[in-house]
Description:
Layout: E1 12-14, E2 21-23, H1 45-65, E3 69-73, E4 76-80, H2 82-91, H3 95-124, H4 131-145, H5 150-164, E5 168-172, H6 174-192, H7 203-209
Amino acid sequence: MSRPPTASELDLCLCHSCGLACDMHDEPHQCPRCDAPLHRRKTNSLGRTWAYLLAALAFYVPANVLPVMNTMMLGSGADSTIMSGVLEFWEHGAWDIALIIFIASIAVPGVKFVALSMLLITVQRGSTWAQQQRSKLYRFVELIGYWSMLDVLVVALVAALVKFQSLGDIEPRPGILFFGLVVVFTMLSAMSFDPRMIWDTPPDKELMDDPIQQ
């Protein structure tokens, strides 16, 4: 069964600003409707995605090792890392906050690292394996990226609640800065990846996968 033609085969390009299907026969540099820049693929997508992902991975280590906040109660203070904060909230019965911090700070970045690495490697290898599922995986990575700042918001909320009381105080520590950088660079990595590359099948593999042309 023959497949329908792709946009590149029809010499078309979709404007990322207004969604107009633009004719690329004369290689226009701007969309005729909204004047936005046109590009068939995101510029240097693989290189930029790898760079942002590796930077996020480098910041992920100090984000989990360094303390993210210092809690002062009744004159005695203690620094807390992300994981120790999760355990402390859990032990004090705040399992909902502990679960939110664990998912947003530990699980979500780990899932994004694994998913983006898998997408990059399969694209570089020109793999035709599970293309539809990989496209859905990329959309899932984009979706969870918007919730990656929950941990920072929880720390700010807890700090505001404790400061409201006269016997306690909470101050941020360097770990929260590194975690913020992890969130920013993983989002930049996901934004730099061009999911259309998942469907860029090399001609030799396309012939092998099409039984009619064999």
